[in-house]
Write a structure and sequence with these properties.
The chain has 8 helices and 9 strands. With about 300 residues, it is α/β, with parallel strands linked by helices.
């Protein structure tokens, strides 16, 4: 992402064998690819395994991919990556098979295997990062769409006459609900490399930030009911890089939810759930993907296993 490079190494049973977290600042392709290679090699070395034992690597990053102008401009896309063959370039460096996925789809996989969705096979994830993305699992399978851009909810119009978005449309969801939107509301020209200021404003009850949370929670509510009507999921999960305490408050303010196809009398789980896989959720989903592509659907890690939140 713009602010963090997070890596996770899993073994074939889904047990975490290593992790790495490096702070970055909107890395360009030359430095970003080098950092990805270094992180992968460090994970393998620290786990005391050989590269020959690695079945694959998955890189996840903000989408959409190969869509102008959305993928090449704007404050929530990684600058300069639009035309970079990330998987091919990293595969050459590591001599391993590498796949590329958007972060929200990976976050859905992370929650399914390590978080709150272990018992669910039909879910939608609202991933709040620098921008805003959506991940969809249908019968336990990630739904990617024809070109890998399914779930690009950040550019769903929530207010037809709303704020101008860099994509050229008005009222896009991520102009209200995202880390960048929060900082923009507070008067920052760009998103800082850490989110400490957001937590400070949240804990001190600063009015300007409180107003943003009301606005963002309203958009979260709108997204939930529209995604429910579109996909009829077992539940909708909100997670991402946004600090956990702020996500929890946004979830609280989004309730109660208006009626949708999910407004059934008999519900075993809430319609909206806060994710439990933590800030590493997309990296955990990424680490599952090589196993998933190689062996098909895997058994989610036992709910008894500890997961960082």
């Amino acid at each position: 992402d713009h602010n963090w490079l997070i890596g996770v190494l899993l073994d074939l049973t889904g047990v975490r064998r290593g992790e790495i977290m490096v702070q970055v600042d909107s890395p360009a392709p030359p430095t970003g690819l080098a950092a990805l290679e270094e992180a992968a090699r460090k994970l393998v070395a620290d786990a005391n395994v050989r590269f020959e034992q690695i079945c694959g690597v998955s890189v996840v990053m903000p989408g959409p991919f190969e869509v102008d102008p959305i993928a090449s401009n704007g404050p929530t896309v990684l600058p300069g990556w639009a035309d970079v063959a990330v998987a091919d370039r990293l595969s050459e460096r590591l001599n391993l098979p590498v796949s590329l996925e958007n972060d929200a789809t990976a976050a859905a996989m992370g929650e399914h295997y390590f978080g709150v969705a272990r018992q669910h096979r039909n879910i939608v994830v609202i991933f709040v990062g620098t921008g805003l993305g959506g991940g969809v699992l249908i019968n336990g399978q990630p739904y990617r769409g024809a070109f890998g851009n399914a779930g690009e909810i950040g550019h769903m119009t929530v207010y037809p006459d709303g704020r101008r978005c860099y994509c050229g449309n008005q009222g896009c969801a991520e102009t209200y609900l995202s880390v960048h939107a929060a900082y923009e509301h507070l008067g920052y020209a760009r998103t800082p490399p850490t989110y400490d200021e957001l937590l400070h404003r949240f804990h001190t009850g600063e009015r300007q930030f409180d107003l943003w949370m009301d606005e963002a929670a309203t958009v979260l509510r709108l997204l939930v009911i529209n995604l429910e009507n579109l996909f009829d999921p077992e539940t909708v999960i909100v997670n991402g890089f946004m600090p956990h305490a702020i996500l929890a408050e946004l979830e609280r303010r989004a309730l109660p939810l208006p009626s949708s196809v999910s407004s059934r009398r008999r519900r075993e789980v809430p319609r909206l759930i806060l994710g439990a896989a933590g800030q590493e959720v997309a990296a955990l989903g990424a680490a599952v993907l090589p196993l998933f592509y190689s062996f098909g659907h895997l058994t989610p890690v036992s709910a008894a296993m500890p997961v960082k939140t």
